[in-house]
Design brief:
The complex is a heterodimer of chains A (about 230) and B (about 120). The radius of gyration of chain A is 19 Å and the shape is elongated. The longest helix of chain A has 19 residues. Chain A has four helices and eleven strands. Chain A has a domain of about 110 residues. Chain B folds into two domains: about 40 residues; about 70 residues, c-terminal domain of poly(a) binding protein (Orthogonal Bundle). The longest helix of chain B has about 40 residues. The relative contact order of chain B is 0.10. Classes of the chains: A alpha+beta (about 230), B mainly alpha (about 120).
Chain lengths: ~230, ~120
């Protein structure tokens, strides 16, 4: 099971590597941030099983596979201090870029990632975001590739011990992101047909989207928080 | 659409509908009509699913869905049902905090009895 899981994540990684030039560990977790049509947290089963096996000593804050991926990333931090080619536009936190050959070790070489999540509203929709992952949103007009973006409508921020619930917005909280790509969704065929009236229309449609990668969540510290005593 | 495209869309259909163009054309047209209709239905179904899962999550804490949403609206928390259902599944502590906020904002649930867990009730003493 684990080997097939690794294979599936390798397949995901390789399919994205040609487009993005970003390291494979991002793509293990990237699949979770999805285009609007698919439920956000649709992880293929093998991936989740693989990562739950990696979790040995993590607390139950991020219990389920989707969140456990980011936790696995944090757990497997240790020795990765190599930074061969840091991207100039990349996140402030050091994110090394292993060669495409070292795929298996990539899963063990995650940098220290903060265990934090936020709920942000973009384009009229709400998304749960984690630093280091990407997601597809509605096309942001006027944003070019490699632009840094600050998202201000942050509705909830959660860390390991505290939750900051916005009413409706967490004041001064900001989610920093980088625009990666302005593309199009997969084509849907819009076929309209009325029976016995000789009416049929066949139209294809590709909705424009923007892929953004979340780099950090800041500015929530001074907000009244709900702290758990666990 | 020409025949090749229709037969490509007809993959997986039953019987002659995947092979013979006359039958495949009808079935493919019907399939495309269904997909048009169901793209709209999917939004309704997902919302219903989210509401069910939020209901289940809040009832574990002794609050039902209607009172929970009423409390959130009173507190001007604008999280939508999709995010609430995800939080209820994956972030139990944050969800607990939301339920407490709602309970304080709208005291309609003081007399609710928490459901007893089956594990607690033992048959063989």
């Amino acid at each position: 099971m684990a080997s097939s899981a690794t294979f599936s994540t390798l397949v995901l990684s390789s399919s994205f590597a040609t487009q993005c030039n970003v390291s494979n560990r991002h793509h293990q977790s990237c699949f979770l941030s999805s285009p609007p049509k698919i439920p956000i947290f649709s992880i293929p089963k093998p991936v989740s099983l693989k990562l739950t096996s990696l979790l040995s000593k993590t607390p139950t804050f991020f219990t389920i596979p989707k969140s456990s991926e980011s936790d696995a990333a944090v757990v497997d931090v240790e020795p990765d201090n190599v930074e061969p080619e840091p991207e100039p536009e990349a996140a402030p936190e050091p994110e090394p870029e292993p060669e495409p050959a070292s795929v298996v070790e990539a899963s063990k070489e995650e940098p220290k990632r903060e265990e934090i999540f936020a709920v942000v509203m973009i384009g009229g929709r709400q998304y749960i975001v984690f630093p280091g992952r990407y997601l597809y949103t509605q096309r942001l007009k006027g944003a070019n590739v490699n632009d840094k973006i600050v998202l201000n409508k942050v509705l909830l921020v959660g860390t390991k011990t505290t939750t900051y619930i916005g009413k409706p917005v967490v004041t001064n909280a900001a989610v920093h992101a980088v625009v990666e790509e302005q593309g199009l969704n997969p084509k849907v065929v819009v076929f309209k047909y009325k029976k016995k009236k000789n009416y049929r229309r066949n139209i294809g449609h590709r909705q424009p989207n923007t892929r953004i990668r979340i780099t950090g969540i800041t500015g929530y510290q001074d907000y009244p928080a709900v702290t758990l005593e666990s | 659409m020409n025949k090749k495209e229709i037969l490509k869309l007809a993959k997986g259909f039953r019987g002659r509908a995947k092979n013979c163009i006359r039958i495949a054309r009808e079935r493919v047209e019907k399939a495309l009509q269904y997909s048009y209709r169901d793209r709209r239905n999917k939004k309704r179904d997902m919302r219903s699913l989210w509401i069910q899962s939020i209901n289940a999550g809040t009832r574990q804490h002794g609050v039902n869905y209607g009172n929970f949403m009423h409390g959130l609206m009173k507190e001007n928390i604008q999280l939508n049902r999709k995010v609430l259902s995800e939080i209820s599944m994956h972030e139990p502590y944050s969800f607990r905090a939301l339920v407490d906020i709602s309970r304080n904002a709208f005291p309609g649930n003081k007399n609710v009895v928490l459901p007893t867990r089956k594990a607690d009730v033992s048959i063989n003493v």
